[in-house]
Structure formats: structure tokens, C-alpha cells
Amino acid sequence: MTRYFRFGEFEIVQNPDEPPAFGAVCVAHPKECHEHSGNVSDVKTVHKWIAGHARDTGHLDFDRNMGDRCHVIPPEGAIPEARVPRSV
Ligand SMILES: [Zn+2]
């Protein structure tokens, strides 16, 4: 799924070649546990890991994260030519 956002005239597009990554970290006892699900492309896999970790440890609090890579399409002339990377 490609998502589009706008900030003024700048268009911000999710990179379709880099799917979002989901993950979770146990924060119930951060100094003792802090186990991480690993990053996966499917939030259901993260939820399954959270449920399994809760079942196995009794830990009930997690930080759940989602990250993605995006690309900015600026309006014409918004970025000085000297700042735009050139392809070789
Ligand atoms: Zn834990």
C-alpha cells in the first residue's frame, strides 16, 4: 500500500519497494527483559509475538513500532539546484 502525505507543496510518498516494518519491544521490566520481536512486514506477526511473550512471561507492556522509507517530491524550484544530488 502506497501512502501519500503533503507538507505544503512538498509531496511525501511511501517507497513501494521498501514495505513498512513492524516490531515490538517488551517494556514491562525494561532492565530485566527488553526482548524484541524483530522487524517484520506483517503487524499480525508482531501481535502473535506479543501474545506469546505475554503468555510465556506474564509481561503485559510493549512499545509497538512501525517504520517505513519515504521519498519527497518537492515543488518545482523549491530546492536550489546545487543541493539536488546528481546521478552519475
Ligand atoms: Zn518481557
Tags for this model:
88 residues; alpha+beta; 2 domains; three-stranded antiparallel sheet; two-stranded antiparallel ribbon; 5 strands; 17% helix; 28% strand; binds zinc ion
Structure description:
- A hairpin with a 2-residue loop joins strand 1 (4-7) and strand 2.
- The protein has 88 residues and is α+β, with helices and mostly antiparallel strands.
- It has one helix spanning 43-57; strands at 4-7, 10-14, 21-26, 62-67, 70-73.
- The strands form 2 sheets. It has a 3-stranded antiparallel beta sheet, with no helix packed on it. A two-stranded antiparallel ribbon has the order 3-4.
- It has 1 helix and 5 strands.
- The protein has 2 domains: 1-18 and 68-88, no CATH class; 20-67, no CATH class.
- Bound molecules: zinc ion (ZN).
Mean of all residue-level pLDDT scores = 88
Number of E strands: 5
Shape: elongated
Beta-strand proportion? 25-35%
Number of helices: 1
Query: Secondary-structure element sequence?
Result: EEEHEE
Identify the strand order in the major beta sheet.
1-2-5
- What is the number of domains? 2
Distance between the termini: 31 Å
Largest β-sheet summary: 3 strands, antiparallel
**Which structural class best describes the helix and strand composition?**
alpha+beta
Radius of gyration: 19 Å
Ligand set: zinc ion
Helix content: 10-25%
Question: What is the gist of this entry?
Answer:
The chain is of the alpha+beta class. The chain is built from one helix and five strands; from the N terminus they run βββαββ.
